[in-house]
Amino acid sequence: MLQSLNNYITRFQRIPLSEKLFFIQHLRVMMRAGVPLARALSTLSLQSGNKKFQLILTDLKNSIEKGNGFAESLKKYKKIFGELFINIIQAGEVSGKLEDALEQLFIQTKKDYEIRSKVRGAMIYPIIIVLAMIGIGGLMIIFIIPKITEIFQASGVELPLPTRILIGISDFAVAHKILTPSVIIILISGFFAAIRTKKGKLYFHIVLLRLPIFGKIIKKINLSRFCRTLHSMLMTDIPIMDSLKITSNVLGNVIYKQIIIEASEKVAKGINIADTLKKDPRIFPPVVTEMITIGEETGSLDNVLKEMAEFYEEEVNQTMKNLPAIIEPVLILILGVGVAGMALAVIMPMYSLTETI
User: Fold this and answer.
1) What CATH number does domain 2-111 carry, 3.10.20.740, 3.40.50.300, 1.20.81.30, 1.50.40.10?
2) What is the model's pTM?
């Protein structure tokens, strides 16, 4: 019974990107040292600290021992490894350069992991500040405002509009201590459910790209991923149309996905990649399309993409380092407006009280 429960829980266990990075790195080293693939997978399964990943690696080892190819065995776990991983491994097997394929995957995964880590690290500070602001505001509305409003209501003076609004919010929150959190949870759940739909996700991603600070960051992240992934695909023998389709799956923003999918269809008709990406210069800046044009004309597109990937990755790194300093004035302004509004709602009736005395 306990074993069945553990197996059930393991099915829903998440495999972090760091675990995959560790796997690729050590598999590459072991393959280069001449260790057979099945044996390497067996060793790495014992070394992994993730039970779900242990089971997957053991299953891959068993599949390879039965005579199946590595890429063929990986297709069973497409949701875990992704289309990019499987296609690069398949190209490496076909060309007999599996070690080189793992090298490309290691660089790709490492860069992706570094960007994600920097984004998460930079977002911790603003998230904590926002949560603290919401928490303090909620506590004031529930516990402090009702005590102050008792004085105002007992005085019988006519209260200004900001004070009446604040009292109304406070009275509702106090009278519906269970309903208020429930409504907030329902609204938040409804929002996340809406952005999971195809249409909702599209509109949400359009809004994200137009945000003052975060829009530029999202664009740089998607551009770096596009350049890095397409560069990795061009290092294999995978056709350019398929490379673009696989690259589109790596991009996090729906708008970028759609443009790359459309680009793959146009490239199949003989149109250059750069020409297909000039549709919206706000999504793919002219400098990107111009560099791709030069790369296509000179036959050095892979090198151009690599240089652009490194450029945008460095841009993201610098932005993430400076993000707390950039956001701090905005957070202070929002906090100041909130505090000023609440203070105004409390102070205004006091002047009315002094006039009546």
Assistant:
1) 1.20.81.30
2) 0.80
